């Protein structure tokens, strides 16, 4: 990540689980709308099954009318790392992804997908088109 500039910095907040400062780094896709749309604080509104997300992503890809972008979130401080790990553990232990509740103008849906350092990127998101 040292060679990349972050595209957004703000809070991720899931009440009763964690709130922390995070930076978003580009991985794949076009980020113009995302950087315009993301608020100062991303509110996580709930959980969703991976199966539901991947069915939706496949429909989006097949339509050819919408874009999918992928970012990597990284906590800013050591204290943020602890809260980040709590949120990661929360979703991983339930085998669920996070659903962002903010209403945005250009970005229709935003999911938080917990991937461990040794996890493979879900095949639905590759090949990457961007800095990777």
UniProtKB/TrEMBL annotation:
According to its UniProt entry, one GO biological process term is: DNA-templated transcription
Looking at the UniProt record for this protein, which Gene Ontology cellular component terms does it annotate, in alphabetical order? nucleus
InterPro entries, alphabetized: SPOC_C (IPR012921)
| All copies of domain Spen paralogue and orthologue SPOC C-terminal, residue ranges | 3-122
- Note one Pfam family from the annotation: SPOC
Record protein name field? PHF3 protein
Q: Which organism is it from?
A: Atlantisia rogersi
């Amino acid at each position: 990540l040292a060679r990349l500039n972050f595209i957004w910095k703000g809070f991720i907040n899931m009440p009763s689980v964690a709130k922390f400062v995070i930076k978003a780094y580009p991985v794949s896709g076009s980020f113009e709308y995302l950087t315009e749309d993301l608020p100062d604080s991303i509110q996580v509104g709930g959980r969703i099954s991976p199966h539901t997300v991947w069915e939706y992503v496949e429909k989006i890809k097949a339509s050819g009318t919408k874009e999918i972008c992928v970012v990597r979130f990284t906590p800013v401080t050591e204290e943020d790392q602890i809260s980040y790990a709590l949120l990661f553990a929360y979703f991983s232990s339930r085998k669920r992804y996070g659903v962002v509740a903010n209403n945005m103008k250009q970005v229709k849906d935003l999911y938080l997908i917990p991937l461990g350092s040794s996890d493979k990127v879900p095949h639905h998101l590759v090949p990457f088109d961007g800095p990777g």
